[in-house]
């Protein structure tokens, strides 16, 4: 049952509204003055407030100001015999949903209350969804115990509730969009929209209109006025992904918005003011792009107020088992499947893989395994071929640990082990032969001779 509070200093009005609304299956409570009504609002939950404007002591506008100041959750309808435009405007500015004038028709009151309840229900649902989003994108959802990712989490917690511009860098798939969402939903702007725009996904000839909107007739096909992403994100956050792909002409317009907080729509002359936080992201080296003249230096410094770099997954190998466990649980629940066990050998293969697609590639693989896997355990046979390279190398050592009754070709096995160790040393040293030789306890000349003999071709630019 919905609850209504009536605040009016006239007892006849209070009783009339209480009797009428009670007959419509509402629970109605009445107060004779603003102070008493405000105390009730602070201690109890009311879906709708019917509030008289002119009362001795604390009047209706004073009550509205207190409701706004105390962040009291209710939907207010003003009752007034003074239906002046300025009064109505001020009441609306203070958060009133509607107003009705004395003398009123009871059915009009009923209609206004039903509309207010509908709005109240929408607001409650909106608040619930926002709380869920904040929970979903808390910093606890950024998975990882490694030092690099823990540093990122601590940094986000420090800067989330500021208005400073953020530049998130990192390879594709490292989670730049997740970081942007986490920052937004943990800031004071979370009540307003987070508007994303991928600068690389939209043709350059319409990207300006997407960002800034356009006026009717601004270009062929502009049959209506259209607002852009900046206006949509007003009071919220604009996430500009792949900012490095922005054309030089748009870099100039973006710089102006960052500096002046204003712009004009395409084909327009009216200057539009906006209050928007910018979070930009890129997988490009913007400092290099600046040196090459591909990206404006002044824009780079405007964006790079708070830099956040996300390391690639291959540099956080200790986090891979934790991420796998997280994705197995999350995706299994989403797909309504029993979570499979990941065998030790499979975990080894996944932990040793280089992950060029980073966390996104890992998540996609786990989803594929959960959908296609029929048994309750993931083994290396379930993994794509590219994940098995380290396993093949390790099998040489596994064979060397035991001798079967059929015997073994020791020379061949030792040759395989030597080949594998040389390749591993070259990989670890990035092809620098002097470093690889040191890892193997050899001199550089001996290593080169062995590489020639075994046809191991591994070039380095520096050695």
- Biggest sheet: strands side by side, in what order? 2-1-3-4-5
Major sheet size, sense and barrel closure: 5 strands, parallel
Termini gap: 80 Å
CATH topology of the largest domain: Rossmann fold
State mean pLDDT (0 to 100 scale).
89
Tell me the number of structural domains. 4
Annotation field: number of helices: 19
Q: Can you count the beta strands?
A: 14
| CATH 4th-level superfamily of the largest domain | P-loop containing nucleotide triphosphate hydrolases
Helix content: 40-55%
Low-confidence stretches: none
Question: What's the CATH C level of the largest domain?
Answer: Alpha Beta
Structural class: alpha/beta
Based on CA inertia axes, which overall geometry fits?
elongated
CATH architecture assignment name of the largest domain: 3-Layer(aba) Sandwich
Radius of gyration using CA atoms only:
33 Å
What percentage of the residues does DSSP assign to strands (E)? Answer: 5-15%
